[in-house]
């Protein structure tokens, strides 16, 4: 992500379904805010939920935060920082054990960590700037997107080595695995979705996203066959992957960097860091609708969902004024996770 913190099918504007705007949001909030989880300062990127262990994983710049939220087993959250990473982008739980995959963007590696001890079990060289990643349903295959190199790396998690590369284009962001033979990846530089067959190891063309600038987050509603991409220009793009076309744009907040599909509640969730809002989007007969816009905090641009409880965890921090030509620094002691609980 930016800021670490078969052929192209063009779609005319007439084919896009406009949304009525934020005024149409339902008055009853979809979430209520709970107490924040305080954690050590550090820049961050993706957050992911580890369902096997009931915990949150946050790619946290130079390490990985492993967080067990407060619950019946513990009166307050348990926060640990593990690993030594050089620009952590994604941290994912590897099923069937206690290992974590981390993309280390600044030294072009994928690290495998023991989640309990923090010990590094493997360092796997990959193409330039590994960023977003996913683990397939077999639990043994990881798909890592090298943003600068424009290459999708396929990693065998048992052998802990790269087994294949698929050459796409620079600018790769969040991927999703539609099925065994179809990988879809946002390209924030080309404003499109790249398609590839991970078994054959070859690209399958692109889907243009007119009106969607800098797509980053991407999630999929499998029963509907629809994917939703978050765009840097305050839009979300609904895409029919089978038909390979953009079907709708929906206005959201500014500065989104993730999309989450809540399969239990049949809705998309998009946090936007510039406006400090969360868009709750439902699907109805193939159309997307914003049903609520929830206040979060500025900088809360990624999030992880506990699908059982419905709790959403979004990393955030306050930033000091930036000096000319430099990135803004985090205000000391301000890093935390915004915790949202489903209303009602």
Describe this structure in words.
With 344 residues, the chain is mainly beta. It folds into 2 domains: 18-42 and 222-344, 7 Propeller (Methylamine Dehydrogenase, Chain H), CATH 2.130.10; 45-208, Methylamine Dehydrogenase, Chain H (7 Propeller). The protein is built from no helices and 28 strands. The chain has a 4-stranded antiparallel beta sheet, with no helix packed on it. Strands 2-3-4-5 form a 4-stranded antiparallel beta sheet, with no helix packed on it.
What features would you highlight for this structure?
four-stranded antiparallel beta sheet; 0% helix; Methylamine Dehydrogenase, Chain H; globular; disordered N terminus; 49% strand; 28 strands; 344 residues; mainly beta
Topology record:
Elements: E1 31-38, E2 47-50, E3 55-59, E4 64-68, E5 78-82, E6 88-94, E7 99-104, E8 109-114, E9 120-125, E10 130-135, E11 141-146, E12 151-156, E13 161-167, E14 172-179, E15 182-187, E16 192-197, E17 202-208, E18 218-221, E19 226-231, E20 235-240, E21 245-251, E22 260-262, E23 267-272, E24 277-284, E25 287-295, E26 304-305, E27 312-316, E28 336-342
Antiparallel strand pairs: 1-28, 2-3, 3-4, 4-5, 6-7, 7-8, 8-9, 10-11, 11-12, 12-13, 14-15, 15-16, 16-17, 18-19, 19-20, 20-21, 22-23, 23-24, 24-25, 26-27, 27-28
